[in-house]
Amino acid sequence: xxxxxxxxxxxxxxxxxxxxxxxxxxxxxxxxxxxxxxxxxxxxxxxxxxxxxxxxxxxxxxxxxxxxxxxxxxxxxxxxxxxxxxxxxxxxxxxxxxxxxxxxxxxxxxxxx
DNA sequence: ATGTTGACTTGGA
DNA sequence: GTCCAAGCCAACA
Length: 113
Known about the structure:
The longest helix is centred in the N-terminal third of the chain and has 10 residues, at 6-15. Strand 3 and strand 4 form a beta hairpin. The chain is globular, with a radius of gyration of 13 Å. It has one domain: Arc Repressor Mutant, subunit A, CATH 1.10.10. It is mostly helical and 113 residues long. The chain is 39% helix and 7% strand. It is built from 6 helices and 4 strands. It binds a DNA duplex (13 and 13 nucleotides) through helix 2, helix 3 and strand 2.
């Protein structure tokens, strides 16, 4: 992880998000050790589209479970459509049962770390 | 090298 | 419960 840039680290974690689950920028940032660099996580997603293994950026939302970055996708609706396609209910750009589908990298990946 | 920006978070009123 | 302000880190120009 040391050689990988912050962006790559973010990609790795996001790529590990199980299908049907979502996580928050802060959770990823915190997992990477920079809990206050949550902005960077979102900013890293900016390059997600050109990241080689297309990362499920639609599974990353803010702490409110709101699809803040949906507008950055190819189509604003694509993010919601994809989430629903995975079984995640979305209403008014926010995830329903966010707590329920929330995926905490620190708890799920802590063992491998 | 400095300054601006950003798909965020938290805390206080 | 909502709204405003400050913080913090990394990439980019």
